[in-house]
Amino acid sequence: GAGVSQSPSNKVTEKGKDVELRCDPISGHTALYWYRQSLGQGLEFLIYFQGNSAPDKSGLPSDRFSAERTGGSVSTLTIQRTQQEDSAVYLCASSLSGLAGDTQYFGPGTRLTVL
Amino acid sequence: GQQVMQIPQYQHVQEGEDFTTYCNSSTTLSNIQWYKQRPGGHPVFLIQLVKSGEVKKQKRLTFQFGEAKKNSSLHITATQTTDVGTYFCACSMNSGYALNFGKGTSLLVTP
After folding, report:
1. How many whole angstroms separate alpha carbon B19 and alpha carbon B31?
2. What is the mean pLDDT of chain B?
């Protein structure tokens, strides 16, 4: 079956511009996560959605970052006024139930480069 | 929140040699997960350990969870070039659901 998909796969933007990154989770998965991976680094948690509950935004690095999940499915991560330090691979993952320890399935990521 | 530290950061072995990566926490973990990320790829789930002292095997891979549930290890016997990649351990954050990832161990296997 289809896995997690993300678009675009690559995004190059100029400093100060806004970008939108899209994630399509696995059908039927109630939980969706966004992570960021900088070059050669581990994964940094950004935000978590679970069903209709309020999202856990505790990992967002600044108020320039926001995310929404429409209809409990597709999610969009928006970065406003991008900075060079925002350059990273943005990974989306989904899991069936969102319970602690639930297996997370990752998408291929969006590589963001801010010039 | 709960954090995990991984060592070593890098490991370079000859094909056929064994490899071990360690994951340590200062606090007791409810569970530990291991992921593999191939170069240019995304993390792929390998296994989850939940019980104290648990040992699980997947072919040449052996995963252990410490008795105190504060450390874990991944051991690969007789490495192959297909084992190349970065191995991450991850634990559930205090919020319960998202994962705190270690910084990973990058394995390079030369023929």
Report:
1. 23
2. 92
User: Chain A residue closest to B96 (CA)?
Assistant: A100
Could you tell me if B24 and B66 are in contact, meaning their C-beta atoms sit under 8 angstroms apart?
no
DSSP secondary structure letters along chain B? ----EEE-SEEEEETT--EEEEEE-SS--S-EEEEEE-TTS--EEEEEE-STT-EEEETTEEEEE-TTSSEEEEEESS--GGG-EEEEEEEE-TTSSSEEEP--EEEEEE-
Q: Which residues pair with B61 in a beta bridge?
A: B58, B76
Instruction: Report pLDDT digits (tens) over A10-47.
Output: 999 999 999 999 999 999 999 999 999 998 778 999 99
Q: Quick check: B99 contacting A, CB < 8 Å?
A: yes
| B68-89 pLDDT tens trace | 999 999 999 999 999 999 999 9
